[in-house]
Amino acid sequence: MQDWQKMNTPMQTYDVLLFDGFSNHCLANAIEPLRAANMISGRDLYDWRYVTLDGATATSSSGLQVTPHGALPDTSGTMLLVMPSYGFREITGWGVTKHLRAAAGRYEHMAALDTGSWLLARAGLLDEVRATIHWEELESFSEAFPEIETVRERYVIDQNRITCSGAMAAFDLVMHLIGRDQGQLLAIEVSQLFMSNRPSGTHSEYRTTRDKFVDRALALMTENLEAPLPLAQLAKRAGCTQKSLERRIRSELGTTPQTVYRRLRLNLARKLVVETEQPILEVAYRCGYENASAMTRAFKAEFGCTPRSLRSVS
Fold first, then answer.
1. 211-314: what CATH class?
2. Within 13 Å, how many C-alpha atoms sit on residue 209's CB side?
3. Which GO terms describe its molecular function (predicted)?
4. Among 60, 90, 120, 137, which residue's CB has the most CB atoms within a 10 Å radius?
5. How far apart are CA 200 and CA 164, in angstroms?
6. 313, 209, 198: which is closest to 257 by C-alpha?
7. CA-CA distances (angstroms) from residue 142 to 67, 146, 190, 201?
8. SS3 label, residue 284
9. Domain boundaries, the chain
């Protein structure tokens, strides 16, 4: 990878605490971006494990059974994601509270996804922090836990507590964490892989960068990979001058607009090489290159192998 991504961050361990009735959608949205970040970066940035309170199998709301890697009392790591979803009101008892409180001392961060905020709140782990929950439960949550500042946002990060409102918001949250911890360009690449290119918004909605002009430029780049826009036109359509765009992208992403654009085009090329049988020349055209030789040179410089050699081992 290029030097505009963070290269010295240690591997982070995300453990997902599953309860019967958990949402497959929420689980996939939380974990798949981590897998993609490892794949795109070529590094083991994240490790993840599935745990339950007692190590027994958990069954999702749609019947998917997950055999956990272990029991919660035996684990520790960077972040614990608490994921009960349906039936959360029936998850009661001192045993649950005791395990969650103990886990808070073994994990750097505690995150509640979907209705997980209810369990953390009941354990006293959200006192005096801002928090959210699935919006269908927002009013009852606020009434049940008046000591918590309840807000209607997609996700909230307050100190070492994270709360998230639902399955789609889980994707937004994890994308934010990847950008924060590994560099915004990797988050952009993961977003591109999942074809998620949302308009900029507030912290309550996933946004690629802190700069609306950079966000617009990135959206334009993604929409125009086959016929790349000249930098001057890109800047004009993004609503700023070329010089301003260059400065803003350098400030946000630590590199030039040309480097970002090239990387996005080559990411598409890699995806097409691996996932399709299109001729290399066709792949080159679809990624904005006039001929296969030019793309092959850029591809090898970026990924350390040629498109054909990558296809032969895929």
1. mainly alpha
2. 22
3. DNA-binding transcription factor activity; sequence-specific DNA binding
4. 120
5. 19
6. 209
7. 34, 6, 34, 25
8. helix
9. 12-176, 211-314
Separation CA 45–CA 267 (nearest Å): 19
Closest by alpha carbon to 72, among 82, 64, 63?
82
**Cα distance between residue 10 and residue 219, in whole Å:** 30
Burial environment of residue 41 by CB neighbours within 10 A (0 to 12, 13 to 18, 19 or more): buried
| Pair of tokens at residue 74 | 């035996």
Distance between the two ends of the chain, CA-based, in angstroms? 20
Q: Report the SS3 class of residue 208.
A: coil
Q: Where does 12-176 sit in CATH, by number?
A: 3.40.50.880
Q: How many residues does the chain have?
A: 314
Q: Where does residue 178 rank: exposed (0-12), middle (13-18), buried (19+ CB within 10 A)? A: buried
- Note the pLDDT tens digit of each residue in 135-185: 999 999 999 999 999 999 999 999 999 999 989 999 999 999 999 899 888
Taking CB atoms within 8 Å and a gap of at least 24, the contacts of 231-237 are 231/257, 231/258, 234/261
For the four alpha carbons of 96, 99, 102 and 106, in that order, the dihedral sign comes to negative
pLDDT at residue 59 greater than cutoff 50? yes
Q: Write out the two tokens for 293.
A: 């030789």
pLDDT at 203: 37
Output the six-digit token pair for 10.
């240690």
Would you state the pLDDT for residue 9?
A: 72
Q: Number of helices and strands (H, E) in the chain?
A: 13, 11
Question: Which residues, including other chains, have CB under 8 Å from residue 264's CB and lie 6 or more apart?
Answer: 188, 189, 192, 221, 222, 225
Beta strand pairing status for 12-18 and 77-83?
Answer: parallel
Token reading at 48: 């993840």
Q: How far apart are CA 134 and CA 113, in angstroms?
A: 8
